[in-house]
Design a protein that fits this description.
Blueprint (H helix, E strand, L loop, with lengths): L1 H28 L4 H15 L5 H14 L3 H6 L5 H13 L9 H9 L12 H6 L21 H9 L3 H4 L5 H7 L2 H15 L3 H10 L8 H13 L4 H10 L8 H15 L3 H10 L2 H4 L3 H13 L4 H10 L8 H14 L4 H6 L8 H14 L14 H6 L2 H8 L4 H8 L3
Helix pairs in contact: 1-2, 1-3, 2-3, 3-5
Length: about 425
């Protein structure tokens, strides 16, 4: 556009120059005096317009000098003929005009002057049909699946193995993920978890259980890990605790310290045994403390265990602290009152409390039917509680009951 405007301006200047030459010639043909011709030169330039550049003004001066005779010739009454001046005019017009240097900088500057397209610019129907608009995310939805195609964060979390159908069941977890940027918010947490010791194949299940950690401050998470290291927990032990208790790093240093102090003082354990306890069952640091207190009271008051016996039971079977009180009392009642197992034997094999009561009852009744229900280590054909509950059915029948699997199945049908 700018180049075309220059061509128009140049042709306008040439046309103005020709008019400036033609007008004095007409005046001379009408008997113009030399003085009139000299006075006419600036007037011709004025009539040519403001667009005439200084180089054109000099051309006008040359044309005026060549067209009008000198004052001396005017006195003699002789004027130069128009034909004598024509070659001068034609020679002036024949000279090629010097064009401006259109180098790359000028062209670039001209193109930069072109204003950008406006968002309100009217386009044709053909152009409008060719526009492919991306689908908008739903304004409201009850499932995160509808947002996966619109969210880089959700798409990459799914690739890691996160189960969004489980995440959306957790309060405000879905809203949190939709507000996070993967590069700014999520990536640094993933790198932190890998540095702690969470394996790549564990990241998906971990974040499925605890998506809230993606919204935590990285510095706070590092402070909690540093606290565990200060308590002499090894890197592999911290990795095991974090993997088995995903909510562990959501709790402040104060809460973790108070919880460790509670188990140490309440159970009368040493520092090493307290560490071993929470390593085996890290949920003790993240779960509610009231059920733990209630189970300790049940063991001591209702089941009749001594304090030192409770310490042994808890160190061997930490799950007894979080077990159902009803199930705990029913299992103890059957073992102690029906099978006749004393407290010191239950303290020696506390894993029996983790077994299903139905399994204990079926096997004990089958042994009693065969006359082999002997649980006193001082008597022959002694059967330990560990063998009673831990062995598979086939091994239990052949090695403990000394019977076939078919015999055991037929007996169960009579119950």
């Amino acid at each position: 556009m700018a180049l075309w405007a220059r061509h128009v301006s140049r042709w306008g200047c040439l046309l103005s120059t020709a008019r400036a030459v033609e007008l004095p010639r007409r005046l001379r043909s009408r008997g113009c005096t030399a003085r009139a011709c000299r006075e006419f030169a600036p007037l011709a330039a004025l009539l040519a317009g403001k667009e005439v550049v200084p180089c054109r003004l000099q051309a006008y001066r040359q044309l005026s000098a060549g067209s009008c005779s000198s004052p001396d010739s005017a006195k003699d009454g002789s004027f130069s003929s128009p034909e004598s001046n024509l070659p001068s005019v034609q020679q002036e017009q024949a000279k090629p005009e010097t064009l401006p240097d259109l180098n790359a900088k000028i062209l670039d500057r001209d193109w930069d002057d072109i204003p950008p397209s406006s968002a309100l610019e009217v386009i044709s129907e053909e152009e409008a049909v060719q526009i492919i608009a991306e689908p908008l995310p739903p304004v409201q939805s009850s499932t995160l699946r509808d947002y996966v195609d619109h969210s880089e964060t959700l798409a990459k979390l799914v690739h890691l193995g996160v189960d969004l159908s489980q995440v959306e069941k957790r309060q405000k977890a879905g809203q949190l993920l939709l507000t996070l940027d993967f590069e700014k918010d999520v990536k640094k947490i993933l790198l932190f978890l890998k540095d702690v010791g969470v394996e790549d194949n564990q990241l998906g299940p971990f974040l499925t259980k605890n998506p809230y950690i993606l919204g935590e401050d990285l510095e706070a998470l590092e402070t909690r890990v540093a606290y565990l290291k200060s308590k002499k927990f090894g890197k592999s032990e911290i990795a095991q605790m974090v993997s088995r208790a995903p909510y562990l790093l959501l709790f402040s240093v104060e809460r973790l310290d108070n919880r460790l102090g509670f188990f140490k003082n309440e159970l009368g354990l040493s520092v090493k045994k307290t560490k071993d306890l929470v390593i085996r069952l890290p949920r003790l640091l993240t779960g509610k403390i009231e059920p733990v207190k209630e189970n300790l009271q049940v063991c001591q008051i209702e089941l009749g265990f001594q304090r030192n016996e409770i310490q042994q039971i808890v160190c061997k079977t930490p799950k007894i602290l979080t077990a159902s009180k009803k199930r705990l009392k029913q299992t103890f009642d059957y073992l102690h009152n029906i099978m006749g197992i004393p407290h010191h034997m239950l303290t020696r094999f506390p894993q029996v409390f983790n077994s299903k009561l139905l399994r204990i009852r079926e096997r004990h009744m089958f042994l009693a039917f065969l006359g082999r229900a002997q649980y006193d280590p001082a008597q022959p054909s002694y059967i330990s509680l560990d063998q009673l509950v831990s062995l598979p059915d086939e091994v239990f029948c052949t090695e403990i009951a000394k019977a076939s699997m078919q015999d055991f199945e037929n007996f169960l049908k009579t119950l």
